[in-house]
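Ops channel
N.P.: pipeline sanity check, posting one input/output pair.
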Protein backbone atom coordinates (compact mmCIF):
# COMPACT_ATOMS: atom_id res chain seq x y z
CA UNK A 1 0.00 0.00 0.00
CA UNK A 2 1.41 3.37 -1.04
CA UNK A 3 1.59 5.62 2.04
CA UNK A 4 3.17 8.55 0.23
CA UNK A 5 1.50 11.91 -0.20
CA UNK A 6 2.08 14.84 -2.51
CA UNK A 7 2.83 18.33 -1.21
CA UNK A 8 2.61 21.44 -3.35
CA UNK A 9 5.56 23.81 -2.98
CA UNK A 10 5.53 27.35 -4.35
CA UNK A 11 8.90 28.64 -5.54
CA UNK A 12 9.03 32.37 -4.90
CA UNK A 13 11.94 34.71 -5.61
CA UNK A 14 12.44 37.28 -2.84
CA UNK A 15 14.19 40.64 -3.07
CA UNK A 16 13.60 40.89 -6.81
CA UNK A 17 14.52 44.11 -8.59
CA UNK A 18 12.13 45.10 -11.39
CA UNK A 19 10.76 41.54 -11.31
CA UNK A 20 14.21 40.09 -12.06
CA UNK A 21 16.86 38.26 -10.08
CA UNK A 22 16.17 37.62 -6.43
CA UNK A 23 16.67 34.65 -4.15
CA UNK A 24 14.34 31.64 -4.57
CA UNK A 25 12.65 30.11 -1.54
CA UNK A 26 10.27 27.22 -1.23
CA UNK A 27 6.96 27.87 0.52
CA UNK A 28 4.33 25.37 1.70
CA UNK A 29 0.90 26.52 2.86
CA UNK A 30 -1.31 24.61 5.34
CA UNK A 31 1.66 22.76 6.82
CA UNK A 32 0.02 22.03 10.21
CA UNK A 33 -0.01 18.26 9.79
CA UNK A 34 3.55 17.96 8.50
CA UNK A 35 6.09 16.55 10.96
CA UNK A 36 9.67 17.76 11.44
CA UNK A 37 10.81 14.75 9.39
CA UNK A 38 8.32 15.60 6.61
CA UNK A 39 9.51 19.21 6.45
CA UNK A 40 13.16 18.22 6.31
CA UNK A 41 12.43 15.69 3.54
CA UNK A 42 10.55 18.33 1.53
CA UNK A 43 13.32 20.91 1.99
CA UNK A 44 15.92 18.39 0.82
CA UNK A 45 13.89 17.52 -2.28
CA UNK A 46 13.18 21.17 -3.09
CA UNK A 47 16.94 21.76 -2.86
CA UNK A 48 16.87 25.50 -2.25
CA UNK A 49 18.72 27.25 0.57
CA UNK A 50 15.49 27.53 2.61
CA UNK A 51 11.87 26.42 2.50
CA UNK A 52 9.18 28.01 4.68
CA UNK A 53 6.27 26.03 6.10
CA UNK A 54 3.17 28.07 7.00
CA UNK A 55 0.74 26.85 9.63
CA UNK A 56 -1.70 28.21 12.19
CA UNK A 57 -0.43 30.01 15.28
CA UNK A 58 -2.16 30.34 18.64
CA UNK A 59 -0.41 33.64 19.40
CA UNK A 60 0.37 35.33 16.05
CA UNK A 61 -1.24 35.61 12.63
CA UNK A 62 0.90 32.82 11.14
CA UNK A 63 3.45 30.25 12.27
CA UNK A 64 6.51 29.83 10.04
CA UNK A 65 9.08 27.04 10.24
CA UNK A 66 12.24 27.32 8.14
CA UNK A 67 14.31 24.41 6.88
CA UNK A 68 17.54 24.30 4.90
CA UNK A 69 18.30 21.04 3.06
CA UNK A 70 19.96 19.67 6.20
CA UNK A 71 18.46 21.34 9.30
CA UNK A 72 15.92 23.74 10.78
CA UNK A 73 16.87 27.38 11.42
CA UNK A 74 15.22 30.01 13.60
CA UNK A 75 14.66 32.71 10.98
CA UNK A 76 15.01 33.20 7.25
CA UNK A 77 14.71 36.62 5.70
CA UNK A 78 14.10 35.83 2.07
CA UNK A 79 11.66 33.01 2.81
CA UNK A 80 9.72 35.34 5.14
CA UNK A 81 9.61 38.08 2.51
CA UNK A 82 8.59 35.58 -0.16
CA UNK A 83 5.83 34.13 2.01
CA UNK A 84 4.20 37.37 3.15
CA UNK A 85 4.50 39.02 -0.25
CA UNK A 86 2.71 36.00 -1.75
CA UNK A 87 0.03 35.95 1.00
CA UNK A 88 -0.66 39.59 0.18
CA UNK A 89 -0.83 38.89 -3.56
CA UNK A 90 -3.39 36.08 -3.18
CA UNK A 91 -5.56 38.00 -0.72
CA UNK A 92 -4.99 35.87 2.40
CA UNK A 93 -3.23 38.75 4.12
CA UNK A 94 -5.81 41.42 4.83
CA UNK A 95 -3.84 43.86 6.97
CA UNK A 96 -0.59 45.74 6.44
CA UNK A 97 0.51 44.99 10.01
CA UNK A 98 0.83 41.27 10.74
CA UNK A 99 3.12 38.86 12.59
CA UNK A 100 4.87 35.51 12.51
CA UNK A 101 5.59 32.95 15.22
CA UNK A 102 8.91 31.10 14.91
CA UNK A 103 10.86 28.69 17.09
CA UNK A 104 12.71 31.80 18.35
CA UNK A 105 9.63 33.81 19.29
CA UNK A 106 7.39 36.27 17.50
CA UNK A 107 8.29 38.96 14.97
CA UNK A 108 6.35 41.83 13.47
CA UNK A 109 5.77 42.00 9.70
CA UNK A 110 4.86 45.24 7.93
CA UNK A 111 3.61 45.54 4.36
CA UNK A 112 4.01 48.44 1.95
CA UNK A 113 1.89 47.25 -0.95
CA UNK A 114 3.35 43.84 -1.81
CA UNK A 115 6.74 44.68 -0.25
CA UNK A 116 7.16 42.78 3.02
CA UNK A 117 9.33 44.03 5.87
CA UNK A 118 10.24 41.71 8.75
CA UNK A 119 11.32 42.74 12.20
CA UNK A 120 14.75 41.90 13.55
CA UNK A 121 16.24 42.63 16.96
CA UNK A 122 18.70 45.32 17.99
CA UNK A 123 22.22 44.19 17.04
CA UNK A 124 24.66 42.35 19.26
CA UNK A 125 28.34 42.59 18.32
CA UNK A 126 30.97 40.00 19.22
CA UNK A 127 34.73 40.48 18.86
CA UNK A 128 36.35 37.75 16.74
CA UNK A 129 39.79 39.32 16.33
CA UNK A 130 41.49 36.23 17.78
CA UNK A 131 40.30 34.26 14.74
CA UNK A 132 40.95 36.95 12.12
CA UNK A 133 43.82 35.05 10.48
CA UNK A 134 41.67 31.93 10.04
CA UNK A 135 38.71 33.92 8.72
CA UNK A 136 40.95 35.65 6.16
CA UNK A 137 42.48 32.29 5.18
CA UNK A 138 39.01 30.80 4.65
CA UNK A 139 38.33 33.43 1.95
CA UNK A 140 41.80 33.65 0.37
CA UNK A 141 42.19 37.21 1.70
CA UNK A 142 45.06 39.25 3.11
CA UNK A 143 44.75 41.77 5.95
CA UNK A 144 45.24 44.66 3.50
CA UNK A 145 42.18 43.51 1.53
CA UNK A 146 39.99 44.72 4.41
CA UNK A 147 38.63 48.24 4.83
CA UNK A 148 41.02 50.18 7.10
CA UNK A 149 39.83 50.44 10.72
CA UNK A 150 36.79 48.27 9.96
CA UNK A 151 37.09 45.09 12.06
CA UNK A 152 35.58 41.74 11.20
CA UNK A 153 32.63 41.34 13.56
CA UNK A 154 30.07 38.70 14.45
CA UNK A 155 26.70 40.48 14.37
CA UNK A 156 23.38 39.04 15.51
CA UNK A 157 19.90 40.53 15.00
CA UNK A 158 18.19 37.15 15.35
CA UNK A 159 20.70 34.98 13.52
CA UNK A 160 24.51 35.25 13.72
CA UNK A 161 26.59 36.25 10.70
CA UNK A 162 30.28 37.04 10.29
CA UNK A 163 30.56 40.53 8.75
CA UNK A 164 33.72 40.91 6.66
CA UNK A 165 34.38 44.34 5.04
CA UNK A 166 36.57 44.34 1.91
CA UNK A 167 37.90 47.38 0.10
CA UNK A 168 36.24 47.04 -3.29
CA UNK A 169 34.09 44.95 -5.62
CA UNK A 170 37.12 43.41 -7.37
CA UNK A 171 38.22 41.80 -4.11
CA UNK A 172 34.63 40.74 -3.41
CA UNK A 173 34.26 39.19 -6.86
CA UNK A 174 37.55 37.28 -6.66
CA UNK A 175 37.07 35.64 -3.26
CA UNK A 176 38.31 32.06 -3.03
CA UNK A 177 36.10 30.54 -0.31
CA UNK A 178 37.31 27.42 1.47
CA UNK A 179 33.87 26.05 2.24
CA UNK A 180 35.15 23.38 4.63
CA UNK A 181 37.02 25.94 6.73
CA UNK A 182 34.08 28.36 6.61
CA UNK A 183 31.86 25.53 7.83
CA UNK A 184 34.23 24.77 10.72
CA UNK A 185 34.34 28.44 11.78
CA UNK A 186 30.57 28.72 11.39
CA UNK A 187 30.08 25.72 13.66
CA UNK A 188 32.44 27.16 16.29
CA UNK A 189 30.61 30.52 16.40
CA UNK A 190 27.10 29.17 15.71
CA UNK A 191 26.87 31.18 12.49
CA UNK A 192 24.42 30.92 9.65
CA UNK A 193 27.34 32.04 7.52
CA UNK A 194 29.70 34.74 6.29
CA UNK A 195 28.50 38.06 4.88
CA UNK A 196 31.37 39.60 2.93
CA UNK A 197 30.70 43.11 1.64
CA UNK A 198 32.05 46.24 0.04
CA UNK A 199 30.70 49.77 0.28
CA UNK A 200 32.29 50.58 -3.09
CA UNK A 201 29.49 49.88 -5.57
CA UNK A 202 28.97 50.64 -9.24
CA UNK A 203 25.40 51.69 -8.51
CA UNK A 204 25.24 54.89 -6.41
CA UNK A 205 21.77 53.86 -5.20
CA UNK A 206 23.26 50.85 -3.35
CA UNK A 207 24.94 51.33 0.02
CA UNK A 208 26.82 48.04 -0.15
CA UNK A 209 27.11 44.90 -2.23
CA UNK A 210 27.58 41.54 -0.50
CA UNK A 211 28.08 37.80 -0.79
CA UNK A 212 26.77 35.20 1.66
CA UNK A 213 28.40 31.80 2.23
CA UNK A 214 26.62 29.37 4.58
CA UNK A 215 28.08 25.89 3.95
CA UNK A 216 27.44 24.76 7.54
CA UNK A 217 23.73 24.93 6.68
CA UNK A 218 24.17 23.50 3.20
CA UNK A 219 24.13 26.96 1.55
CA UNK A 220 27.14 27.30 -0.75
CA UNK A 221 26.22 30.84 -1.77
CA UNK A 222 22.93 32.72 -1.56
CA UNK A 223 21.45 35.45 -3.74
CA UNK A 224 19.61 37.45 -1.06
CA UNK A 225 19.77 37.10 2.73
CA UNK A 226 17.49 39.41 4.68
CA UNK A 227 18.72 38.14 8.07
CA UNK A 228 22.28 39.10 7.04
CA UNK A 229 21.42 42.42 5.41
CA UNK A 230 19.94 43.57 8.73
CA UNK A 231 23.23 43.06 10.59
CA UNK A 232 25.08 44.72 7.72
CA UNK A 233 22.93 47.85 7.94
CA UNK A 234 23.65 47.95 11.68
CA UNK A 235 27.39 47.59 10.98
CA UNK A 236 27.25 50.44 8.47
CA UNK A 237 25.49 52.62 11.04
CA UNK A 238 27.45 51.72 14.18
CA UNK A 239 30.93 50.76 12.95
CA UNK A 240 31.41 52.66 9.69
CA UNK A 241 29.32 55.62 10.92
CA UNK A 242 27.22 55.82 7.74
CA UNK A 243 24.34 57.44 9.58
CA UNK A 244 21.14 56.68 7.69
CA UNK A 245 17.79 55.16 8.52
CA UNK A 246 17.33 53.28 5.22
CA UNK A 247 19.93 51.18 3.40
CA UNK A 248 19.77 49.39 0.06
CA UNK A 249 21.89 46.23 0.07
CA UNK A 250 22.76 44.41 -3.15
CA UNK A 251 23.56 40.71 -3.16
CA UNK A 252 23.90 37.90 -5.69
CA UNK A 253 25.82 39.89 -8.29
CA UNK A 254 28.98 37.77 -8.09
CA UNK A 255 27.52 34.30 -7.89
CA UNK A 256 28.55 31.75 -10.52
CA UNK A 257 25.11 32.30 -12.02
CA UNK A 258 24.39 35.94 -11.09
CA UNK A 259 21.00 36.70 -9.54
CA UNK A 260 21.16 40.30 -8.31
CA UNK A 261 18.89 41.03 -5.37
CA UNK A 262 18.01 44.21 -3.49
CA UNK A 263 17.26 44.14 0.23
CA UNK A 264 15.82 47.27 1.83
CA UNK A 265 16.75 47.73 5.49
CA UNK A 266 15.15 50.34 7.75
CA UNK A 267 16.67 51.02 11.15
CA UNK A 268 14.56 52.20 14.07
CA UNK A 269 16.81 54.71 15.87
CA UNK A 270 16.29 56.28 19.28
CA UNK A 271 18.92 58.49 20.94
CA UNK A 272 21.48 57.44 18.30
CA UNK A 273 21.00 53.76 19.16
CA UNK A 274 19.45 51.05 16.99
CA UNK A 275 16.31 49.75 18.69
CA UNK A 276 15.12 47.38 15.95
CA UNK A 277 15.59 46.50 12.32
CA UNK A 278 13.10 46.03 9.47
CA UNK A 279 14.41 44.25 6.36
CA UNK A 280 12.29 43.72 3.30
CA UNK A 281 11.70 43.39 -0.38
CA UNK A 282 9.35 42.06 -3.04
CA UNK A 283 8.45 38.47 -3.91
CA UNK A 284 7.68 36.99 -7.31
CA UNK A 285 6.19 33.53 -7.88
CA UNK A 286 8.36 31.56 -10.31
CA UNK A 287 6.85 28.09 -10.38
CA UNK A 288 5.16 25.31 -8.39
CA UNK A 289 6.50 21.86 -7.55
CA UNK A 290 4.71 18.71 -6.45
CA UNK A 291 6.88 16.86 -3.95
CA UNK A 292 6.07 13.27 -2.98
CA UNK A 293 6.97 12.31 0.60
CA UNK A 294 6.48 9.33 2.90
CA UNK A 295 3.48 10.03 5.15
Amino acid sequence: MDKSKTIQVHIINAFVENDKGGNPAGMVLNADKLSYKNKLEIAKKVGLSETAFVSESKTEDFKLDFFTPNKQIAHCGHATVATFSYLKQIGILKNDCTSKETIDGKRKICMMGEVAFMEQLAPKYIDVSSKEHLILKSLGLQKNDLIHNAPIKLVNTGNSFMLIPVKNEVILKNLIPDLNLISEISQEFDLIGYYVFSTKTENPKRDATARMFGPYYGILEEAGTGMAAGPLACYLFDILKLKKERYNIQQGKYMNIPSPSVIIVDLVIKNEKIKSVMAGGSGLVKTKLNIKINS
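N.P.: looks fine end to end. The two ends are 12 Å apart (CA to CA).
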